[in-house]
Amino acid sequence: MLAQNTVLVVGDASTPVALEDLTAFGFDVADRLGLPARIAVGMDYDVTDYAGVVLADNWLNDVSSVVLGTEAQEADMFVIDADTLYAYAIDERCGHCGEEGDAAPVLVGDTWSTSLHGSCVAAHSRMASLGLVPAVA
């Protein structure tokens, strides 16, 4: 499955605490880049299927994340690290209705959504399940 508008978040997910930290970092990725962010758990991902890869600070602490991070760098794709990510401002625009303010990513399975208003989550989920992505300017 291609996830061309989604970034892959790569880091240590080898323990429950590490996975919790990586998931929290994934929220920051989605919040700052304004793109859905999938948390990589294990090596079963083709990094070239994603819009880019974001490397958590701890990506060198786990074999799976080292493999994925290295594959992404060798594929000459969009790869940034945590320090670079934090240079981006938080995206306060709703990815569903396009309005500003009080929007935050929502975790669905292993993927953080774009930032959404609480009132837009259900409508966005219905559209996404149908394969529709709203175009907001």
Structural summary, described in words:
This protein is α/β, with parallel strands linked by helices and 137 residues long. Helices cover 31% and strands 18% of the residues. It is built from four helices and six strands, in the order βαββαβαββα. It has a six-stranded mixed sheet with strand order 4-3-1-2-6-5. Helix 2 links the parallel strand 3 (50-55) and strand 4 (79-81). The two termini are 26 Å apart. The model has no long low-confidence stretch (mean pLDDT 87).
How many β-strand stretches? 6
| Shape, per Cα inertia axes | globular
* Distance between the ends: 26 Å
* Largest β-sheet summary: 6 strands, mixed
Structural class: alpha/beta
Please trace the helix and strand order, writing H or E for each element: EHEEHEHEEH
What Rg, in angstroms, do the CA atoms define? 14 Å
Strand order of the largest sheet: 4-3-1-2-6-5
Mean pLDDT: 87
Discrete helix count: 4
Share of helix among residues? Answer: 25-40%
Q: Would you identify the regions where 5 or more consecutive residues have pLDDT less than 50?
A: none
Strand content: 15-25%
Brief overview, please?
The chain is α/β, with parallel strands linked by helices and 137 residues long. The protein contains four helices and six strands.
